[in-house]
Protein 1
Amino acid sequence: MNNLNLLVVEGNLQKENENFKNSGIPTHAESLKESLSYYTNDLNIDVFNPCAEKSFDKILPNIKKYQGLIWGGSSLNIYNDCIEIRRQISFMKECFKNIKNILAICWGMQVAVTAAGGEVKKSSNGAHIGIAKDIEINENGLSHPLYKSKNKKFNSPAFNFDEVVTLPKGATHLASNKINKIQSIHFKSGISDVWGLQYHPEITYHKMITLIKFRKDRLINVRKCFKDEKEIQDHINFIEKEIKVSEKDSRMLELKNWLNYLKSAA
């Protein structure tokens, strides 16, 4: 069988990615490619950033060649209207017309939900800073291929301040925790079968700790998630304890399950 063609969409602004690189942090697209390589090298992966493109003329003529799309994280907030966010929503709508299988992660899920007519707002129960605790799969999720062999309750890397509050028409809710009622969903839009996750199975806890340190001032002074650096360090210590008990295969199982689904559908 020929290698699958996979499109990875980078959700961050180019400036944020440059900040990442200057601080020695992989972009989210780079982290995703590394995680995919853990499972298979039988993928032809292209990376596309809608924020950096004034038009989609270069990619749209060939977009139907992709058997799958993974749309990853971003530091943006979907309700902060700007041209870069509008471009991402517009491109997601184009993907709905052309790509059958979409894995939408965190920001990607928020873009997909918005493009499909749902709604995302600032989370009313706080934020996930590096980790989401006690995500619980519901009855719909337990029978869904996304969660094959997954523990019913689990922790995961996560970094989000927002949440889905209105699902797209016909969407199925799969998992929740105390911070976000909607932790994962499945819906169809256009020709696309969309699996959405609010958390990040593809990003390591080590990278999450690096991001916390990178965003330290913003987390204290802008986001008001911590009162001082000691609180941040206490939270990092908690995540480091999770690293000791976390297993890579279990953490990334959703990514593996989606890849297997993609291969079976090809």
Protein 2
Amino acid sequence: MTVNILTFYNLNILEQLRIEEGLLRTDRENWVLINIGSPKAIVMGISSKPEEVVNLPLALKDNLPLIQRFSGGGTVIVDENTLFVTFIFQKEAHNFDLHPKAILEWAGSLFKKGLNLPEFSIQGNDFALQNRKIGGNAQYIKKDRFLHHTSFLWDFTPSNMSYLLHPPKEPAYRQGRPHLDFITPLSPHLSKIEFEKRLITSLSSTYTTILNPQVPYFPEHRISTILFTEL
């Protein structure tokens, strides 16, 4: 099976999401997108309500972009120390059903093997080291195709967590912990370049890979709207 790997460095998360959605909706090949960092922004899931998950007065004061992605998942703040990985695959590429849990477990096993982090685990819908979150996930599933998007915390600025409110719904393993007691960075375990190399090496041992092919053209009008609010 052939998988196309696209690598980016500090690509704006809004542009990344637009590429993801174009590849999901208008293409039939298998893709992996790796993006090392993005200009700072807040990204919400499609069903999130800004006033419930974002400190809007603070975001307004600091003129921070607010993006609502086309997929599910929670709310994150991203910046140059966020590592993004997105899988976009045809259904026939694997033998599991296109069900959120099955896709999450497949992605989790791939990251655990590829990144070689023994304490890596799936907690709720997150990726964690033991019981502290290192990555949040979002999915979009079609009849014959799926997308799985992960935002990993290579590192984070503690003050950035002030932009996020405690979510109205939380996974059981969080146990009411505030953001800074709930998350942990990947930076003590591997560099950004090591993250990229390990992942590409693992993918290349599993699939026939093509690195950085030309991205297909997909007209903007064929991509559903992603809310982008310059606060």
